[in-house]
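Appendix B, record 7
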Amino acid sequence: MSETMIHSSSAPVLLTITDGIAEIRFNRPEVLNAVDVTTAIAFRDAVAAASADPATRVILLTAAGRAFIAGGDLAFFRAAGEKAPDAARELIGPIHDAVEGLATAPQPVLASLHGAVAGAGMSVALAADLAIAADNAVFNMAYAKVGNSPDCSASWTLPRLVGLRKAMEIIMLSDNLDAAEALRLGLVNRVVPLASLEEETRKLARRLADSAPLALRSIKRLLRDSGSRSLHAQLDEEAAQFAGNAGSADFREALEAFFGKRKPKFEGR
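Structure tokens (predicted):
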């Protein structure tokens, strides 16, 4: 077992790396994990540390308390007054770095969602590669309700998940979406009872951590980059990735395990 702890328990974002699972935990439960500048910076730093650690096989996003993230910290913007544009840039800069870090991280990113998943919280959830939600999760883009437009990549991720027309509806009307509707729309991969969320999240994270790291890295990049390539270019990249992975020890281990009728043990090389 390997374990790395980053940040004190009172920090707004906690990072723990244990047995290949890098858990990034939002830790402002008293304000439903609303994102202020300190939280955004801590999130950015945690993503950078988790993705760069060679022990990390999967990045897991979780949150303390009754909600995942209720959105940006509106009190921060109110206090900024006429300097709200500068305050917005101060907050958005690091959290956008974090979101881009999740997208470019070689590891798969799994979000575990419960309670309010709103505004920036919904945007961050959409930025993950996979998402599991408790049956009490409530999703709301919320931006239009506070007189603003999306950040944290929601305007990029949401139309790719649900289509342009539905994305317009979800963002412009900002109606609540329950967990069942989020599952139907493809915003999450699984919905489980709240009491089972932690257990089911750990099971899914463990499956990802035990899978072949090089293969998952290739899968993530192929899928995330596919929208910017022609079919011919994508076929070329698929061939390059497959051939490259075919020379790995993990691929040889997978073949031996298959013919030996046993479970493979992947080492990421």
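Remarks on this record: The chain has a mean pLDDT of 95. The radius of gyration is 19 Å.
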